Amino acid sequence: MTRVVAVAGAGGPAGQAAVRRLAAAGFTVAAADADPVRLDQATTATDRAVVDLLDAAATREWVDDVVARHGRLDGMVHLVGGWRGGKGLTAEALDHWAVLEPLLVRTLQHTSLAAQDALAAAPAGRFVVVSAAGAGAPTAGNAAYAAAKAAAEAWTLALGHAFAKAGTTAAATIVVVKALVDEAMRAARPDAAFAGFTDVDELAATIAGLWDRPTAELNGERLWLTPRP
């Protein structure tokens, strides 16, 4: 039976790459993004929905609808991103936190809670979030971003614990990168080296490969696509 995977944040470069790769691998992809224009431009997925992932009820309605129409949910890929940085640990960091916490943490909480039961019931449910190496090595300038990523990691690890405690074969996994790069970024900065960056297509390949790996290798684990600091 074809696996069904939901991609939250499908309108961004990483989401677009994930949708393409998963569809090419034979998955049924349910794509969601808050921006309808970006969603239309970024993905050709036929199963797509405009969803405000900051709205817990709307997020659950989307996930429940995907399960109702397809009869299952084998994966939730959380690719809602955002970044803010500054020159130091100042009051500005609180403004950055106010922007990043909803995007990076609250949307993750809503998608994971909405998908948890369906993923636990799947033969090999997979929940994946992309984090940054900076979460474990925060600087004064990226305090808000690092704190939000660290919170998202903690929540994902807790989900993995819930899967294990319930005796399921589901896995919650963190993929760690330094930063992401895509063709548009390279075109805009042709002289930039983007040293240590992970291409969105490499990220997408890693995500699509999660269903080929055993739960024990993935649940509560960090998969590093960049050298550890």
Number of helices: 8
The computed structural class is alpha/beta
Strand content: 15-25%
| Number of β-strand runs | 9
Radius of gyration over C-alpha positions, nearest whole angstrom: 17 Å
Uncertain runs are none
What is the H/E string? Answer: EHEHEHEHEHEEHEHHE
Helix content: 40-55%
Can you walk through the features of this model?
- The protein has 229 residues and is an alpha/beta fold.
- Helix 1 (13-24) crosses helix 7 (200-208) and helix 3 packs parallel to helix 4 (92-121).
- The termini are far apart.
- The mean pLDDT is 94.
- A seven-stranded parallel beta sheet has the order 3-2-1-4-5-6-9, with helices on both faces. It has a two-stranded parallel sheet with strand order 7-8.
- The chain is built from eight helices and nine strands.
Topology overview:
Blueprint: E1 4-8, H1 13-24, E2 28-33, H2 36-42, E3 47-50, H3 56-70, E4 75-78, H4 92-121, E5 126-132, H5 143-165, E6 171-177, E7 180-181, H6 183-188, E8 198-199, H7 200-208, H8 215-218, E9 221-224
Parallel strand pairs: 1-2, 1-4, 2-3, 4-5, 5-6, 6-9, 7-8
Helix pairs in contact: 1-7, 3-4, 4-5
